[in-house]
Write a structure and sequence with these properties.
- By secondary structure, this protein is mainly alpha-helical.
- 50% of the residues lie in helices and 4% in strands.
- Strands 1-2 form a two-stranded antiparallel sheet.
- The chain is rod-shaped, with a radius of gyration of 53 Å.
- The N and C termini lie far apart (117 Å).
Length: 231
């Protein structure tokens, strides 16, 4: 602030101490851009919006430099369009051609907002697809793990050729069940292939014997399966 000290001690009091416009002009003379208009024009021509940027940032930077150029709206229209991102220019093709500089900025902002909305929709869809793919992969992994493990031992208790596990054999022995069918050993089982399991009695056959005497003697013989001790 050395430049300001002479004005503070000067007598009589200089007008710059009470005139804001003169104060600003003095600052520009000492520290400002020597040729602000040309510097602003160069900055506008070098300004370019990137595809990953939002258009409002580009508009703010453009306005900062355009203020000092002195260009009319027609010149600003062309320079503003030139610096837009290619995606914005592509979207503008679907709209009526803007007739004014202000309309061009409004349309560019509308296209940019729609672009980022669409990007959000794509991100949400991608996220759901990833979750679905993860769930499918997890399900396949669980299925593979289940099928690759040792298969459970199935006890078939109604077939003669079934192979019983030791645990099932012990359970049947304690409950008095047959090893070949699900019936207890004390219950007749006509179709059981266990030779030690009693079968149902068949119909009896009667044999009659008549002697020459005055009385007849009838002897009934009933045929059935032999009694076999339980296992």
């Amino acid at each position: 602030m050395l430049w300001w000290q002479p004005h503070l001690i000067a007598q009589p009091e200089p007008s710059i101490r009470s005139n804001w416009g003169e104060f600003v002009a003095e600052l520009n003379n000492l520290f400002g851009q020597p040729d602000l208009a040309q510097a602003s024009e160069r900055a506008l021509r070098a300004l370019k919006m990137q595809d990953y940027q939002h258009v409002n940032k580009y508009m703010i930077e453009f306005s900062e430099h355009a203020t000092h150029t002195g260009w009319n709206d027609a010149a600003l229209y062309g320079e503003f369009y030139r610096g837009l991102a290619e995606r914005i220019k592509d979207q503008l093709l679907s709209l009526d051609r803007p007739q004014t500089f202000q309309q061009l900025k409004a349309d560019a902002l509308k296209c940019d907002i729609r672009h980022w909305e669409r990007q959000g929709e794509k991100s949400a869809t991608t996220g759901r697809n990833r979750q679905s793919a993860f769930a499918t992969t997890s399900s396949k992994t669980e299925t593979t793990s289940t099928t690759s493990a040792d298969p459970p031992k199935v006890v078939r208790n109604n077939f003669a050729d079934a192979k019983l596990t030791d645990a099932e054999r012990e359970r049947r022995r304690l409950k008095g069940l047959c090893y070949y069918c699900p019936l207890p050993m004390d219950t007749p089982a006509p179709t059981c292939k266990n030779p030690r399991h009693p079968k149902a009695q068949t119909a009896g056959r009667a044999t009659f014997a008549i002697t020459d005497g005055s009385e007849a003697t009838i002897t009934e013989v009933v045929e059935g399966p032999p009694t076999v001790p339980e296992n």
